[in-house]
Specification:
Structural class of chain B: mainly alpha
Largest interface: A-B, 25 and 22 residues
Number of strands of chain A: 10
Order of helices and strands of chain B: HHHHHHHHHHHHH
Distance between the termini of chain A: 34 Å
CATH architecture of chain B: Orthogonal Bundle
Shape of chain A: globular
Distance between the termini of chain B: 54 Å
Radius of gyration of chain B: 29 Å
Oligomer: heterodimer
Largest sheet of chain A: 6 strands, mixed
Order of helices and strands of chain A: EEEHEEEHHHEHEHEEH
Helix content of chain A: 25-40%
Helix content of chain B: over 70%
Number of strands of chain B: 0
Number of helices of chain B: 13
Low-confidence stretches of chain B: none
Strand content of chain A: 25-35%
Strand order of the largest sheet of chain A: 6-7-8-3-9-10
Chain lengths: ~240, ~300
């Protein structure tokens, strides 16, 4: 039995609004192994983003436990870098390279020249060297998400948390970004927990897929993905049936 | 109904259109795609030039009215005022008075902004701090600084202390309100990003909240500066002469008493000029280096 990197055990998450308490997920369990591309898939309202926020440390479970490398999670930290869906996740007052370097400096990982060098290396990787000195507002949505991914990877976290990072992109850019993410993964085999509501994206991105049902989120299935085009179509139909049957 | 749609469908099929492919034209250089803007238009795009034209027009109207009314005691013309202005600048009186005012102003302004920062950081980090700021601003923001002057005189005497006190009052609340509004407006994503880096406390405020809220903070600083100026000149008009050195307000008051009306206008002009310089040089410079460069303001 391989020791899981991320272990989510019987996690129930609740939101409090002023009028009511909403249960986002009910006793969800799953394990992510090192170098997994683990996808949380489900329709809106299945609590997949809440789960990711809980792993990120922004939301405390009211029941159950989340452990990273054997240690329970307390609050947000640079060992779990987030890539958000929103384009405004880059600091507008820093250039592309400074955005990446600042993450390294602020978290105390690297300082000065070393931070700048690592930043440049990862900006190269996502193909944005020409824009290293540009400010975020001059970039397109896809480029901003590339910077956010570079920032997440530069921190070399134990796990990269991606919250529908391509959802706000147009279909063409989205496809390119998916391929790019897989190419980057081929390089360093980083562990990633990826949230999406697109079945197609889940199959393309993931090595393993956790299927969640909505209201409240519960595990419907956990399955391996495939890279064979024929099997992919079959899997897509199966997931579709599981979600909408 | 059904037949109609079917017929329309047939109609489309009856008129087949061929696929069209074209070679795109290759443009060499920028000549055909881009075109330089004519010189006068480029000049007119300069904000300072347009503003200069407005100021010149206003001065023209002033001069015209001054000459027509021909009453230099009530309304001196632009040239009379300029003459008095240059005279008072040359004999060193006006610069000295302006410098006195500016010194007091800066002390009050900096203290006010520092206090406002403290209050709004407290307000963003704790709930009770938030209540405190909201209560205090709603109580004191509508209170005119000049209304506190009699009290200030009683407490701090005739001098710098009283002036700084009313200045702080006029700056503090408006700057704090704007700062707080700015902090509240920082997007949840940016907050989460900051916490993701492991930032907290002062580091989080200084490295994430302040730059993210900078447009609002800058507005607060500008409004605070204008409030401070007004309060100072008004306060100096009431009691400008502290330890034998008065400021610009006192200059205006003194000259009015001596019926040197062009000099009164020169004093006012000086207030206006300093205001213009502050807005168009200092704040503009800060804006260009910060919010404009960061794309937070266009």
């Amino acid at each position: 039995m391989i020791e899981p990197l991320l272990d989510v055990r019987q996690v129930t998450l609740q939101y409090k609004t002023t009028e009511r308490v909403v249960t986002a997920t009910h006793r969800v369990s799953f394990s992510v192994l090192k170098s997994d591309r683990f996808v949380l898939l489900g329709p809106s309202g299945c609590g997949k983003s809440s789960l990711l926020k809980a792993v990120g440390g922004y939301l405390d479970p009211i029941e159950g436990e989340i452990r990273l490398g054997g240690r329970p999670i307390h609050g947000p930290g640079p060992d779990r870098m987030m890539v958000f869906q929103e384009f405004d996740q880059l600091l507008p007052w820093k250039t592309v390279s400074d955005n990446v370097a600042f993450a390294l400096q602020a978290s105390g990982k690297l300082r000065g020249k070393a931070a700048a060098e690592r930043a440049r290396h990862y900006i190269d990787k996502v193909g944005l060297s020409r824009f290293a000195d540009s400010y975020p507002h001059t970039l397109s949505g896809g480029m901003k998400q590339r910077v956010a991914i570079a920032r997440g990877m530069a921190m070399e976290p134990e796990i990269l948390l991606m919250d529908e990072p391509f959802a706000a992109l147009d279909a063409l850019t989205r496809r390119t970004m998916q391929d790019e993410l897989l190419r980057l993964w081929d390089d360093t085999k980083f562990t990633v927990l990826f949230v999406t509501h697109s079945i197609n994206e889940a199959i393309r991105i993931g090595t393993r897929i956790l299927l969640l049902s909505p209201h409240p989120g519960q595990v419907r299935a956990e399955m391996n993905s495939t890279t064979e085009p024929v099997e992919q179509t079959g899997l897509e139909t199966r997931i579709h049936d599981l979600l909408f049957a | 109904m059904r037949e109609v749609t079917a017929m329309q469908h047939l109609d489309v099929l009856d008129r087949p259109r061929p696929d069209v492919f074209q070679e795109v034209q290759v443009f060499d250089g920028i000549g055909a795609v881009e075109r330089p803007i004519p010189a006068w238009e480029r000049l007119w795009n300069r904000g300072w030039l347009r503003k200069l034209v407005i100021i010149a027009a206003l001065a023209g109207v002033w001069q015209l009215y001054g000459v027509i009314s021909d009453n230099s005691l009530l309304f001196p013309s632009f040239t009379d005022t300029m003459q008095a202005f240059i005279e008072n600048v040359m004999n060193g009186k006006l610069p000295a008075r302006a410098w006195t005012s500016l010194q007091v102003l800066l002390i009050g302004y900096i203290c006010g902004v520092a206090l406002a920062t403290l209050l709004s950081v407290l307000a963003i980090t704790t709930r009770i701090g938030n209540d405190l700021l909201e209560t205090l601003t709603s109580m004191f923001n509508p209170l005119p600084a000049i209304a506190l002057l009699p009290l200030a005189l009683l407490w701090f005497g005739l001098g710098m202390g009283s002036l700084v006190f009313v200045l702080i009052h006029s700056v503090l609340w408006v700057v704090a309100l704007n700062m707080h509004a700015g902090f509240m407006g920082v997007s949840p994503t940016l907050r989460m990003v900051g916490r993701n880096y492991g930032l907290s406390g002062v580091g989080y405020v200084v490295r994430i909240l302040v730059p993210a809220a900078f447009p609002s903070i800058l507005t607060g600083l500008k409004v605070g500066w204008a409030f401070a100026w007004r309060t100072l000149i008004a306060a100096e008009l009431v009691f400008g002469v502290s330890s034998g050195k008065g400021g610009l307000g006192w200059f205006i008051f003194e000259n009015k008493n001596q019926l040197e009306i062009p000099a009164v206008f020169a004093g006012l002009l000086c207030v206006i000029l300093i205001g213009l310089a502050m807005e168009n040089v200092v704040f503009r410079w800060i804006e260009r280096r910060t919010v404009r460069r960061w794309g937070m303001q266009n």
